[in-house]
């Protein structure tokens, strides 16, 4: 009986949020879902909790997705991202180990510097996207997607075993701490009073081990997935509620909790990929318009998984490419078919899209044949048997606001 | 009688999802406005997919329930059927879009669409703020011989909601 509006919504939500990851990433029964140490906090704040990648997570709070979204762009919002996989890589061969899995020049990272990168497979497809930071404490700090946690861990473990068998020194440990993303232009105002270091010294994509509102053993990394200036803070679980409460009660700026719903619309406006929607094991970094992730040094050595295919695509252009689209009227969403302007040729498919709360137009992204990938190319997108006019639009849709001092 | 029915109704709708303070406000608002729509409420029938219909003199007005709008969140785009469209019961008759998702609307009964709520083109959020009144979606001439026995009255819909909320 649970079809119709609500059933559809849940179903849609399910596909949209949980992407196309295999069903074994999810628990089929509600009682099997994992909860972060902030679960009670979310419920007390009026969160609507939904299953997400095997976890019970807040999709939105009382104010709703649009208000949450706009609050992050204007002030500061906090996301519980404790469900993400945090891994520590120790051992003197840790960089060589990580380079055997990703396209990043890990050896080239300065102390406490990090970068976005991707695990690739032998065909150049993307296994997951992740952040690797080269901590000055002598280990790599790795954060990857919750929806890929089991797969990522198996992938890294297999490589670890291979390395250890060859006598290399590498050791993986899962970090089981809370992870909060504090995002938005007022982040500095609310966080600085609780820190034992100056946030001006922490540039975009750098990390530091720190004390946060009295909690020892935290790690603050200047990154996020909203396009705004922000940090992610790894906090020992027993201190997470205290740190979150301190931030929420800041007198410096209004702080709101933000759910997965706004997280999705924010990252879309910022032109960032959602694994399972916009990138997966069948798309290469070059097709995904993420060629910049393939470090120069690694290109020269051509020693990463799928290197041959990826380097060939860099040289001679891939057949399809990820681009952004803007349109008005009926919102465009994932799986919509993209046609040439005359409507005659099927040229690609939308991978994610939503009405943009910041811009009040519809934004989406998807893959088109490379000939149609130029900015301002006019295309048609089919939604419920209607052909919608759309323009290929430069990403990000909303200019990003990262802290990169010149 | 009407007023007490409304009070009960509003309490049902706001059970579980909404904090106590707004529950009280909502029920007061309903009481204040009781006279203006008590007649409509008495005749409102619901589907198990959370659409409602009010039928008067063979003309039906269709919308979605308060529970449905709460679940959907802020509506940013409403697609209504074209005037003149002939619908069968359960046909997809429109679509409500939030930032997060698109949700289809199914026609509670068959008939020919005579009017759509043109206000929704510029103010789609009326579906949220006034799902039972200003946020109506479309009107139709109800097909002859239409049977509404499958639809639920307030009381039955209220009981139905209790079976699906937890």
Automatic annotation (TrEMBL), chain A:
Catalytic activity: N(6)-[(R)-S(8)-aminomethyldihydrolipoyl]-L-lysyl-[protein] + (6S)-5,6,7,8-tetrahydrofolate = N(6)-[(R)-dihydrolipoyl]-L-lysyl-[protein] + (6R)-5,10-methylene-5,6,7,8-tetrahydrofolate + NH4(+)
Domain GCVT N-terminal: 38-296
CC terms in the record's Gene Ontology section: glycine cleavage complex; mitochondrion
MF terms in GO: aminomethyltransferase activity; transaminase activity
Coiled-coil regions, chain positions: none
Chief localisation class: mitochondrion
Residues that coordinate or bind substrate: 232
GO BP: any one term: glycine catabolic process
All copies of domain Aminomethyltransferase C-terminal, residue ranges: 320-398
Keyword field: Aminotransferase, Mitochondrion, Transferase, Transit peptide
Main enzyme class: transferase
Annotated compartments: Mitochondrion
Entry's EC annotation: 2.1.2.10
Function: The glycine cleavage system catalyzes the degradation of glycine.
Family designation: Belongs to the GcvT family.
Subunit record text: The glycine cleavage system is composed of four proteins: P, T, L and H.
Name of this protein: Aminomethyltransferase
Species this chain originates from: Biomphalaria pfeifferi
TrEMBL record, chain B:
Cofactor-binding details, from the entry: Binds 1 lipoyl cofactor covalently.
CDD domains cross-referenced by the UniProt entry: GCS_H
Entry-linked InterPro entries: Biotin_lipoyl, GCV_H, GCV_H/Fam206, GCV_H_sub, Single_hybrid_motif
Gene Ontology CC, one term: glycine cleavage complex
Entries under Pfam families matching the protein: GCV_H (PF01597)
UniProt-listed HAMAP family: GcvH
Subunit structure: The glycine cleavage system is composed of four proteins: P, T, L and H.
Name of the protein in its database record: Glycine cleavage system H protein
